[in-house]
Amino acid sequence: MEYFLVVFIFFMFAAWHSYSFVNFSEKEFQENQSFVNIYFLLVFLIALGCGLRGDNEYSRFFNYTLTLGDFFSSQNIAEIIRGPVFALIMSSLKTIGLSSQSLLILFAFTSIFIHAIYYRKYTEYYFLAFLIYLGHEIIFKEFATIRAGLASALVLPIIYYIQSNQKLKYWSLILIGGLIQYVGFLSVFLIHLNRRFDPRLLIFILFASVLIYFIDAASIVLNGLASAGLLPSIVSSYLSYDLYVYDAGLGNFKLIQQVIVILSLMFAASKTNIEKHLPHYNLLFNAYFLSTIMLIVFAPLALFAFRFGGHFYSVEPILIAYFIYNFYSYRPISVLACVGALGLAFLNYVLLQKLESYIFLVDDYRIFLGY
To answer: Cβ distance 170 to 158 under 8 Å?
Structure first.
């Protein structure tokens, strides 16, 4: 319940901010510094709370991390293989005498502020976008898989730099993200998606992905590669556990929600041509479309579906905010969207209780005892 109360406080400012807009004037947006200051103050407090939470699997790994002096020793090879940059970060923090709490603080502030900064770059409704992020994505990323969370957050600046053709920056971020969590290398596909695709082609790809799901092509290909020894050992091991490779199906809530958002955006764009006024729209939409296709194609292997598809979740709040731009009277629509985002948070935090009760600070003694 404590998480929902935090979201509710943010919701009040998001609704106020959304109601304050009369038009989409970039000048008005830039000059409203009071909202910007409140926004980043709230983001700072949320990042601080996330970073100061109790232990998770990564704080447990930290206790077995070697210092930089032994970084390339045979004992550390397994950690380097899991993610070289992530292993280097942990070793660096341990070398200067910091605890596992520093790891959680570093990743929380980095990931959350990347979202906050780039939501503001992409849309005037940055409060709404961040509210949607608080209602869903942060639960499964910054509070859980912090490596995948940071790699996913990096999708936002990567798209920004691809759009502005800053090759050194986006290639550097793709490399860093991939070496923190290998799924980050999926961002390479974004380089080829900076264009508008014919809606008929997109519909065809959706149906084709459903066909691929029914013939279970993903399982056939990945198991074949594993048998030939062409997959990393950690990936092959996942394929042997029913806990990870169950069939998520085509009826899972997240997939249905994304298909609805995609079809709604496609219909709205066909009526208003809103993408012509939003320079990043096509690349953001195509990233989200790719996420949906991966959810469908890899659905027989649930872990891979949600890991691959989830890599591009960070664009979702922006696209939902963009949907408002299709309406003539957008004040009530934007406030209604805030209420919807609050409802999503209530579902995840209160009804489904996706997060356990908040624990303040990592307890290394409890980790040592194994509970």
So the answer is: yes
